[in-house]
Amino acid sequence: MVTHGNFKVSEENAATLEGWIRSTSLPQGQVSRAKMILALADGAKVADVAAAQRVSSKTVHKWKRRFIESGPEGLLDQSRPGRPTVIDADTVDRVLTLTTRHIPQEATHWSVSLMAKYAGITTWQVRQIWQAADLKPHRLRTFKISNDPNFSEKVVDIVGLYMDPPDNALVLCVDEKTQIQALDRTQPGLPLSEGRIGSRTHDYKRNGTAALYAAFNVLTGEVIGRVEKRSRSKEFLAFLKQVERQTPKDKDLHIVLDNLSAHKTKEVREWVAGQPRIHFHFTPTSASWLNAVEGWFSQLERRALYRGVFSSVPELKSELKRFIRIHNRDLAKPFKWAKNAETILAKVKRAKDALPN
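Above: the chain sequence. Below: its structure as tokens.
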């Protein structure tokens, strides 16, 4: 029991209020009220509580009274009486027309405040209209439609490998992640602790770069990797030879890769011609999303590189190798491609039809 004078808060209620304060998803007002009650129970004066929460003393007394009457439930927001605000059809039409067909003079896109100004309504009404129409003017999605003349054939070929791989063969998705920087921070960061997120300096020191070659096995999700200083045809060929050595000799290798010039040099073509079990499948131009290894590279970026601190290139290389080892041991799982070729081609056609000209 937490007690101060005649004001009492049971241990159960105190635990509930403390849980509210630790929450990151509850409304700020609810959290503030919990702080008021716990501060009052600890003996703080009403005036001091009001100043700390930036409210009036009258407000503190109000929530204290509600807590005494109803406990933690009394601190929750209550529905307000009265008829809900109705937004007429003309207002909705005006906002939708402005949003989708016009650009404000003050900016490149609409904000809630700008739309409220132009449409002569409140920001609340703007939010309601945009939410109902699923409009998000502040967001912008990038895209690139391939102009490869053999786009359809290549999509059918690669998606076919993913969804119905050949018998007695491995499907490997190969690519290189170049210019991976060994970044070190200029000062040590502050660690994560209760009530405080971790932090680090925005500036950094560059300590060199490395290139990572990776072959993603669609069947198992495992990765064959090789770290190099540079990313040229010479290094790519060395990686292909490594892949050939580390895979079962009785299986064909169907390798999905992009159209980088280093993948098509004379030395590479001559070596592949002497390896009858190796078959190249090139993705369409501007369609790297068809290469499954790109998803693995995204995992690498999020889990090992984005927050990584590396004082040297050898340290970066060590981390890349460690991540591959841990991935193959604990995280690897079969890759499943969800959309068939017909669905992809139909979506691309709709995108092209929607573009001007």
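The longest strand covers residues 169-185.
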